[in-house]
Every structure is written in C-alpha cells, then in structure tokens.
Automatic annotation (TrEMBL):
<dbReference type="InterPro" id="IPR016160">
    <property type="entry name" value="Ald_DH_CS_CYS"/>
</dbReference>
<keyword id="KW-0520">NAD</keyword>
<keyword id="KW-0479">Metal-binding</keyword>
<dbReference type="GO" id="GO:0004029">
    <property type="term" value="F:aldehyde dehydrogenase (NAD+) activity"/>
</dbReference>
<dbReference type="Pfam" id="PF00171">
    <property type="entry name" value="Aldedh"/>
</dbReference>
<dbReference type="GO" id="GO:0046872">
    <property type="term" value="F:metal ion binding"/>
</dbReference>
<dbReference type="InterPro" id="IPR015590">
    <property type="entry name" value="Aldehyde_DH_dom"/>
</dbReference>
<protein>
    <recommendedName>
        <fullName>aldehyde dehydrogenase (NAD(+))</fullName>
        <ecNumber>1.2.1.3</ecNumber>
    </recommendedName>
</protein>
<comment type="similarity">
    <text>Belongs to the aldehyde dehydrogenase family.</text>
</comment>
<dbReference type="InterPro" id="IPR016161">
    <property type="entry name" value="Ald_DH/histidinol_DH"/>
</dbReference>
<dbReference type="InterPro" id="IPR016162">
    <property type="entry name" value="Ald_DH_N"/>
</dbReference>
<keyword id="KW-0560">Oxidoreductase</keyword>
<dbReference type="InterPro" id="IPR016163">
    <property type="entry name" value="Ald_DH_C"/>
</dbReference>
<feature type="domain" description="Aldehyde dehydrogenase">
    <location>
        <begin position="21"/>
        <end position="483"/>
    </location>
</feature>
<feature type="active site">
    <location>
        <position position="254"/>
    </location>
</feature>
<dbReference type="InterPro" id="IPR029510">
    <property type="entry name" value="Ald_DH_CS_GLU"/>
</dbReference>
Length: 499
C-alpha cells in the first residue's frame, strides 16, 4: 500500500488534530523490515494539559447525555470500524508486525464487538441502579454516576483492540478519555479518534496524545484524571497503580502472565497440540494470556512431542500480507533482543532440551531480513526453577513440563506470582471443572485457548492485574455508586428527646 496515509500523525484533542508543542518526534517502524513508517509527535506537558482540559470541558455535557443517545453514537462508530476493517487492519499489520490474516480477522473485529456490546448494554438499561423496599415506608435506591476524565494507556501487541476495550466502556458510561497508545504502535489512535468524531462523538470526549513512559506518567498523575486504565508489563503497572491509588484514583490494571496449560492423559492429542500451539505462537507469542508453561502427563511425552514437531512445520513466517503467513516478527528491535536473550539463557544456562527452533531467524525473503524475526521455539524436559519457566518472555517460546499426578500439576501450575490465565484439556468435564476451580487465575479455558469475547469479563489474579475488562462487570470499573435512603414515615426518630 502507499506510504502516504501513514506520513502524518498528530495529537488529537478538542475534536481535531493538533500540532505538538514539544518539537520532538519518534519514528514508527515496520517490524517486518525495520523500515520507518511515520514520524509521531511527542506530547509536551502543556499538550497533555490541553488534552485533559478538552476532556474536562466535554465531560458535563457528555455525562448528562441520555445513555440511549450515547449508545447510538457508539453503534455508529462500531459500524464504521467494520466498514473500514481491512484498511485499518493493513495499517495495524505494518505498525505491529502481525500478519494481515490475523489483524483482518481479530484486531478490529473484536474491538468493534466490545464497542457494540457496551453500546447495547447502556442503551438497554445497563446503567440502571437497584431499588430495595427496606420497610413499608422506606426505600433504598442506587444510581451509577460516571467518574469524570479518565486516562487510557494502551499496549503495543493489540493496539486498536486495546484502545477499544478501554474507550468503549469508558465512553458508554458517560466519561471522557485521554488515550496514550504505546510508542511502538501509535498509528491507530488518530484513526480511532476520527471515527468516533465522524460517528457523532462530541469534541473532547476522546482525545489522543503520544509519547513514551514519561508522557504516560504525567498523564496518569494529573490531578484532573479520575481513573487510570493500563495494559502492560507487571513492573510498570505496579508503579502506575501505586501512584494512582496514592492519589485516590480508580484503577484497572491488565498486566502480564506466565500461564499454565494442563493436558490430562485422556485429552484428544490433536486438540491438545493445537491448543498448546495457539497458546504459544499466535501473534508471535506476544499475548499476555499465552499459556507458555505446558504441563503434559509423562505417559504422553513421546506422542505429544512427535505430533507437536509435525505441526510446527505449519508455522509460516513471511510477508505480512501473504495469505499463507501466520507468523510475524516481534514488535521491535528491543523486544527481539529481550526474547533472544531468553532463548539463549534457556539453551546455555537453564540447559533445557531444545526441541525446536532456537537462536537465529526463520527463513524469510531478502527484503525482510532486517526485520525483527525470531524462530518459534520449543523447550522440553523443563523444570519449575528454570528462568525460562518462571519469567514472562512475551515471545514464541514454549516450555514443556512433565508431571505424574493431577494434584502435582495443579500445585506446580499455581507456583507463580502471576495469575492471568490458565486452562485444561481433557475429555472428563467434571475433572476439568474441579481443576479449573483450583487454578489461581482470573481467565480460564477448558478444551480451548485464547478466545476472549466481549461478553467475557477478563482480568488477572495476584500480580497479573486489578479489576476486569469486558462483560457486564466491565462497566462497573467506569462508574461510581450513589446510594439513597428515602424515609416516608413523616417523622424522624431521635434519641435526643426530653425525658
């Protein structure tokens, strides 16, 4: 595609593109070939102040707009996203390095689904409170009020999807937002802002700033911001959450994981291998919920490894827009260095058995050889104390661990500070439910992996997060409660009466 649509990106607030006052820019890079895509302006503190002020001005009117009217605008935006799916997905592929076969079928689509879900929810009375008759002449009722100006901090692995996961419930609930995408994948943000505007969203309700962690830090600590929604790595999330909580801001944190996949002896081998591969190599392993610790019963060792090796031949690196490509590069040079260091550590220090892949790049055409490519890698005979087993790699690196009893597998699966996702493969659904109940994770799957529909609330346990996104519970993170007791008896009882 022509590069011209990608050359211009600006801040977006008060309903229009705005120049940055910092005079600084950073480059958006195509991970598949390391070629520059666009110059992105860095927001100065005064730019961030201006975006927040625009959101603050827009809040009174938007928060008082009837939910059904907000719903119609968001429905229109969801429709526009679907109409422009392929166009947006192409840019998403260039920016993130993900194959077009993925971005065109998942990224925009699932984001639009969440937007539509929350539009339907609020339009159908989803923000209604509760009413309780306390006694014959007294009632209690509750109302849900929007929070105010909220900050959304996006991640680089699912750029537009995450932007929609944050902005959809935020705006549906009557809040306004200042959104900062990751500095590694920023191209979607202005497009989303323009779609919202075209759909009828008033100026200032959704605003975009750009920059690295210092810009995000200034945004999230700003006194006008009432809520921070962050997606990213655990260490950064802890800092953001600590700062926000210390200033009495609401927070939602969607952080990292080191999720277990438990494959029982009776599991269908084909499904188990397919599930493990989806849990490790989809999006080149750059998924927070990835099941990178694959627990296989010792009796299935040979069969599982053999079938996995046969299927690894179907992981195809190549040009992003080739229909056969299902495996892209990593997102950046820095991330390639990190993942490569983990693979090297697994080979040289952890001494894990390398079953497939390893150091070096997959075979790609000459025009892609400068890209941030890594080989899909499988380690086996792993032990729980290995660094590649304990730490989140966020790349296409599978660790296979063998166990003897289900009790052992569950105990080892839970031996981690993280608790984002977990899953089990078995034909015994009663056993599956018993295991799922014991796994310390906020997102769990049985005989599948990775699907996260709009209707499903998702969030991590332990150090993997705080709060949930999506589903009916997701809207609760964007409202505050007001309870009122109305007494109709006509007199106020008092202990301060004359004796």
């Amino acid at each position: 595609m022509s590069s011209s649509p990608l050359l211009s990106r600006q801040l977006f607030y008060d309903g229009k593109p705005q120049p940055a006052s910092s005079g600084k820019t950073f480059q958006s890079i195509n991970p598949s070939n390391a070629a520059p895509l666009a110059e992105i302006p860095v927001a100065s503190q005064s730019d961030v102040d201006a975006a927040i002020a625009a959101a603050d001005r827009a809040f009174p009117s938007w928060s008082q707009t009837p939910p059904i009217a907000r719903s119609r605008i968001l429905q229109k935006a969801a429709s526009l996203l679907r109409e422009r799916n392929d166009e947006i997905a192409r840019v998403e592929s260039l920016d993130s390095g993900k194959a077009f076969t993925e971005t065109s079928t998942v990224d925009v689509v699932t984001g639009a689904d969440v937007l539509e879900y929350y539009a339907n929810l609020v339009g159908g009375g989803g923000l209604n409170g509760e009413t309780t008759q306390l006694r014959e002449d007294a009632w209690v009722f509750t109302k849900k009020a929007p929070l105010g100006v909220c900050a959304g901090i996006g991640a680089w692995n699912y750029p537009i999807q995450i932007a929609l996961w944050k902005s959809a419930p935020c705006l549906a609930a009557g809040n306004t937002m200042v959104y900062k995408p990751s500095e590694f994948t920023s191209l979607h943000a202005q497009t989303l802002a323009e779609i919202y505007l075209e759909a009828g969203l008033p100026a200032g309700v959704f605003n975009v700033i750009y920059g690295a962690g210092d810009v995000g830090g200034y945004l999230t600590s700003h006194p006008t911001i009432e809520k921070v929604s962050f997606t990213g790595q655990v260490s950064t999330g802890m800092k953001v959450a600590g700062s926000a909580a210390g200033n009495m801001k609401y927070v939602t944190m969607e952080l990292g994981g080191k999720s277990p996949v438990i494959i029982l002896p009776d599991a269908d081998l084909e499904n188990a291998v397919n599930g493990a591969m989806m849990a490790n190599f989809y999006s080149t392993g750059q998924v927070c919920t990835n099941g990178t610790r694959v627990f296989v019963h010792a009796s299935k060792k040979s069969a599982f490894e053999q079938r996995l090796l046969e299927k690894m031949q179907h992981v195809r690196a190549g040009p992003l827009f080739d229909e056969a490509t299902n495996f892209g590069p990593l997102s950046s040079a820095a991330h390639l260095e990190k993942v490569t260091a983990y693979i090297r550590h697994g080979i040289e220090t952890d001494k894990a058995k390398l079953l497939y892949g390893g150091l070096g790049k997959p075979q790609v055409s000459n025009d892609l050889e400068n890209g941030f490519w890594v080989r899909p890698t499988v380690f086996t005979d792993c032990t729980d104390d290995m660094r590649i087993v304990k730490e989140e790699i966020f790349g296409p690196v599978m660790s296979i661990l063998y166990y003897q009893t289900v009790e052992e597998a569950v105990k080892r699966a839970n031996t981690t500070e993280l608790g984002l996702a977990a899953g089990v493969f078995t034909k015994d659904l009663n056993m599956a439910h018993r295991i799922i109940d014991q796994l310390q994770a906020g997102i769990t799957w049985v005989n599948t992996w990775g699907e996260s529909p709009a209707e499903m609330a998702v969030g991590g346990w332990k150090n993997s997060g705080m709060g949930v996104e999506n589903g009916r519970r997701g809207i609760e993170a964007w409202v505050k409660n007001k309870s009122t007791l109305v007494d109709m008896c006509g007199e106020v009882p008092t202990v301060f009466a004359k004796l």
